[in-house]
Structures are given as C-alpha cells and as structure tokens.
Specification:
- By secondary structure, the protein is mainly alpha-helical.
- Helix 1 packs parallel to helix 5.
- The longest helix is centred in the first third of the chain and has 32 residues.
- It is globular.
C-alpha cells in the first residue's frame, strides 16, 4: 500500500463524507430550529429517492424535472408530518418527540417498501461512471458532484439563517414559550424546518441512489448522518460539513487498513466507534453548544 493509495482513499472518503453531511444537515436543520433530534431522516432520504423514481417512471418525466418535482413533494410531506404527527407534541418532553420520529422512520420505511417492493432499482441522473483524474489519483465522479451539491446547500442554509425567517427559527429552538409569547408562529416555523430537511433528504437520496441503487439500504444512511451531526455539533451546519469531511476520510482510510485484516465490513464499525466515543467524550460535538443534550 503506497502513499497514493491512501491519498486516493482519503480524498474520495472526504468527498463521500460531504455526501453524509447532506443527511446530517437535515438532522441539524430540525434540531437547530426546534430542538428535536430527528431519527426519521434516513427514511426521508429513502422516500425522496423513491418519489423521484415514481415521477420518472410513472409520469415519464425527465430526470431533471423529476428531481425538483420530488423536492416539492417532499417539502409537502415534511409539512404534513409536522401538522399531523408533531404539532400535538409541541412543548412536550423531548423523549416523546424522539420516539415519535423513530416511529415515523419505521412507518415511512414500511409503507414505501410495501408500495414499491424491496428490489433495488437503478437511478441514472446523468453522471458518468468514468473516474476523474487528479494527477495519479482517481476520484469518483459521483462523489465530486455530491460534494458540490452539499457545499451549495450549506451555503444556501447559512444565508437562510441570516434572514428574518432564519432568525425566527433560531428563536423557536431557544424557547418555545417565549416565542409564542411574542407572537411567533411556532407551528409554522417547525413545519418550515421539516420541509427544508425533507428537501435536503431528497438531494441525499438522489445522489446516493445514483451510486448504490434505490432500496431500503438508503435509510441506513441515518447512522452516518447522526454520527456526522453529533460529531460536528447538533446545532452547527458548519460542524456538519467539517465533521462529514473528517469522518468520511477517516472511515475510508481506516477501512482500507482494517478490511484486509478483518475480511471486509469495517466501515460501519468505524462509524459506530466514532459515534460512541463522541457521545462519551464530547457529547456537544466539536462545534456545538455545551448545553446540547445527548441522544
């Protein structure tokens, strides 16, 4: 194993880590605006990919049109989730809302698979399978595109939270009752955060679906997303980006070393160890506030 091999692993890992950040950003958006740890983000990622396929296959929409149509549909789903499932829990203990999001994850996965079946389906979004060359290094073109999308969405959300609406969402996260007392519509704010999170989940589902196919395994990206969110800080979008880069590179290099010794399958082990150690040693993450509760 030479230096170029590890550089190639690390760079491709960092790029894939930025794609993990897409899932993490959805988790952070909801936590940042409503203090709710969302365990349904993996299922939303899977559902978003299936909705794109539904528009492309059933309505024969071109993929460039199916994706924004699916994003709008998923925004509507996010608003519906807040209205039907979460609005009655406003102001209740966080553990109750946490269990509700876990129930949503199970419900969304089961419903989607019951409708579409469990067979993996390919998703072609026009990204070539040919690698990109960075000197002697080969980069995965899909990872490069995914990283660009993640950075673009990050820039959009940073600007969004500087607007009046973004400031309102941060106020809601800090104190529900105080926000209600000054006339802020907490329900609308939380619904908006779920809509934005669902949009981000769709982007993640499309990009990962184009790489590994669309099936229930997309929902397992929740583990990577939560690890990135916790490592970066549950209320930090910038932390999600930096933690995604670091986790992706570390996961790739570590698995490159461990897989030959263990026979493969070490990626999820590495991520699980990082998550456990982060919660034990620095539960507020690298860039989060110190008063963030453990998951």
């Amino acid at each position: 194993m030479d230096l170029n091999y590890f550089l190639e692993l690390g760079i491709n890992g960092a790029l894939s880590g930025l794609m993990y950040s897409l899932v993490a950003m959805g988790i952070v958006l909801i936590y940042k605006s409503s203090s709710v740890p969302n365990l349904a983000q993996g299922a939303l990622t899977m559902v978003g990919a299936y909705v794109v396929l539904a528009f492309a296959d059933t309505l024969h929409a071109p993929i460039w049109l199916a994706i924004p149509m699916a994003m709008l549909t998923m925004c509507g789903l996010g608003i519906g989730i807040e209205r039907v499932a979460l609005r009655r829990l406003a102001g209740r203990p966080v553990v109750m809302i946490l269990m509700m999001t876990l129930g949503l994850d199970i419900f969304l996965r089961a419903t989607t698979l019951a409708i579409s079946g469990g067979t993996a389906r390919p998703m072609k979004i026009g990204i070539s399978d040919e690698p990109l060359f960075l000197g002697p290094l080969l980069l995965n073109r899909s990872y490069v595109v995914g990283a660009i999308v993640a950075l673009a969405l990050f820039a959009f959300f940073v600007l969004f939270f500087r607007t009046r609406r973004g400031t309102v969402l941060r106020a809601i996260s800090d104190d529900y009752m105080a926000s209600w007392s000054v006339g802020i519509s907490v329900e609308r704010g939380v619904a908006l955060s779920w809509a934005l999170s669902s949009l981000t989940a769709t982007a993640a589902g499309v990009l990962w679906g184009s790489i590994q196919g669309v099936d229930q395994s997309l929902s397992l990206l929740l583990l990577k997303g939560i690890t990135v969110a916790v490592l970066g800080g549950m209320d930090s979008l910038g932390g999600a980006i930096l933690a995604g880069i670091g986790l992706g590179a570390f996961e790739a290099v570590a698995s490159g070393v461990l897989d030959p010794m263990l026979g493969g399958g070490s990626r999820d082990l590495v991520v699980a160890v990082v998550l456990i150690l982060t919660i034990m040693l620095r539960p507020h993450g690298l860039f989060g506030r110190h008063d963030i509760e453990r998951l």
